């Protein structure tokens, strides 16, 4: 992206860590086995969620560091194809529809940012904003609201106790990626 270099690297570190954790979770145990309410309760849906979150975390890290040096077609394939798959899956399977739509919105937002960034001369801007302000604003509202919601869920469980240990890690990853997406959109 085109923020300060230190911010880009910190964002990359944060999202790469979240993506790597999701990848590890995918390899060992899906998030559904951690605790009720931490993610999808259907094991195949949980594995799908882990894979989507790993892709998004690692993809956000790569985009924050490499920016417009990667061709738009690569970013469009990397995020556009999963977005289409999530949209189709959400239309045809009622189980996990909201979760799949969230992943579709995230993948479409990544595609949008990549295409806007690569369309700009040099991948950076100085006088004008990248992308469509209305769409950017809508995505900022969505991911800002999602981050607030995910943060509230991380802090409290229905029983009113603080979530500790590995039970809260999937929620913390989702919060991290929501904040990361918000930060990337904010720099557009």
UniProtKB/TrEMBL annotation:
Q: Which Pfam families does the record cross-reference, listed alphabetically?
A: DUF5134
List membrane-spanning regions.
58-89, 101-120, 126-149
What keywords sit in the KW lines? Membrane, Transmembrane, Transmembrane helix
> Has keyword Membrane?
yes
The protein's name is DUF5134 domain-containing protein
Origin species, per record, is: Kitasatospora aureofaciens
């Amino acid at each position: 992206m085109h923020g300060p270099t230190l911010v880009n690297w910190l964002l990359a570190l944060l999202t790469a860590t979240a993506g790597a954790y999701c990848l590890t979770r995918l390899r060992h145990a899906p998030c559904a086995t951690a605790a009720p309410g931490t993610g999808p309760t259907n094991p195949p849906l949980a594995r799908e969620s882990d894979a989507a979150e790993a892709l998004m975390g690692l993809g956000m890290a790569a985009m924050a560091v490499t920016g417009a040096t990667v061709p738009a077609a690569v970013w469009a394939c990397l995020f556009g194809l999963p977005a289409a798959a999530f949209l189709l899956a959400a239309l045809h399977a009622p189980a996990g529809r909201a979760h799949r739509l969230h992943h579709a919105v995230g993948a479409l937002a990544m595609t949008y940012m990549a295409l806007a960034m690569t369309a700009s001369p040099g991948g950076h801007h100085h006088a004008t904003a990248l992308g469509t302000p209305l769409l950017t604003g809508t995505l900022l509202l969505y991911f800002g609201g999602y981050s607030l919601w995910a943060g509230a869920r991380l802090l409290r469980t229905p029983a009113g106790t603080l979530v500790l240990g590995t039970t809260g890690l999937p929620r913390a990853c989702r919060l991290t990626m929501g904040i990361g997406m918000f930060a990337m959109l904010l720099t557009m």
